[in-house]
Design a protein that fits this description.
Rossmann fold, 3 domains, 14 helices, 6 strands, 9% strand
């Protein structure tokens, strides 16, 4: 598209408050400037675009007509760059974000963007954080489904609430997040499950099929084997989030240390071996403990010691062993 057309359409999209189209055109202009080696201008445009996407979130957040009885509305604050993902998962997520940002363009060419993602992995390895980060990067709100309100002891009431949930967010630009998805989407072939569960799964399938491609559905589960096979097939993307490798632990520690200016006293390679088998949530708890202790000791004119660092590791390991033995 010629530069004059780009600028004309950019102003038109802004005046009509078509934020998706506005961002898409702005990104095209940024890519053009990068191609011309105008890197300073490209960076200034990127910063300006980030402000625009924040405005977009504020605009969406203030929309009326969204019934939040069945979910918690979360303003996302985690950036994708804060997460440590495998190279393949990062590539898949980046491709998806680019695809979704161009959803209007794709639809104009008869192609619906993908909008259903299944996150699989053991607790503590970033499923919820990734859902929030994706909402942040797209500048849309995150709607975290509340099962305690959604699922009632009376089947008819549960079915009614599921219908209301999907009708309330119909065509909304948002991330609809189902954590522990196996809670409501168990296999209909399981002989131990009653007919009520099957009716709930059938209703979920129907509503997911009707979901607008403006709405991103992200479901997370620790037990993918328990999901109904028909439900699993609804998701165009499945990401497996594993416990961090030794290299990923090093990256996490380096990132945390740089972000908060914290000295962990040990070489990261050595520390990563001591933190073997930690989940990402365990790593965060460890790093936060070190950071808290740093400021407490600073207030007392004291310094962190290697003994303190090891103590924090032992405390988390002891907690992990207790949970494992107890449950």
């Amino acid at each position: 598209m010629a530069r004059t057309d780009l600028l004309t359409n950019l102003i038109k999209a802004g005046s009509e408050k078509n934020f998706d189209l506005f961002v898409e055109i702005a990104q095209s202009i940024i890519k053009e400037e990068e191609f011309k080696q105008h890197h300073t201008l490209a960076e200034r445009l990127k910063k300006a675009l980030n402000v625009t996407e924040t405005k977009k979130f504020e605009f969406l957040e203030n929309q009326t007509g969204v019934n939040s009885d069945f979910f918690t509305v979360i303003k996302p604050e985690i950036e994708l760059g804060e997460l440590i993902l495998s190279n393949i998962n990062l590539q898949i997520v980046s491709d998806f974000l680019e695809e979704y940002s161009m959803k209007d363009y794709l639809r104009s060419n008869g192609i619906n963007p993908r909008n259903k993602i299944l996150l699989v992995g053991k607790p503590g390895n970033g499923k919820t954080s990734l859902a929030e980060a994706m909402a942040y990067e797209l500048a849309v709100p995150l709607y975290h489904v509340n099962y305690e309100v959604l699922i009632n002891s009376l089947l008819g009431e549960s079915l009614s609430r599921i219908k209301k949930l999907f009708s309330s967010i119909y065509n909304s630009n948002c991330v609809l997040f189902f954590d522990e998805f196996d809670t409501v989407s168990k296999s209909r072939g399981d002989k131990n499950e009653v007919g009520e569960v099957k009716r709930i799964v059938n209703l979920l399938l129907t509503n997911i099929d009707k979901l607008s491609s403006n709405t991103i559905l992200i479901a997370a589960t620790n037990h993918p084997e328990a999901l109904d096979h028909a439900m699993t097939r609804r998701f165009q993307i499945t990401l497996e989030l594993d416990a961090p490798s030794e290299l990923e632990i090093i990256k996490y520690l380096e990132s945390y240390s740089k972000r908060f200016d914290i000295d962990f006293l040990y070489q990261f390679s050595y520390l990563s071996r001591m933190l073997n088998n930690f989940s990402f949530s365990d790593l965060k708890e460890f790093c936060d403990s070190v950071r808290r202790s740093y400021f407490i000791k600073l207030n007392k004119n004291q310094s962190l010691s290697k003994k303190d660092i090891k103590a924090f590791i032992d405390i988390i390991k002891q907690s992990k062993n207790f949970v494992k033995a107890k449950f």
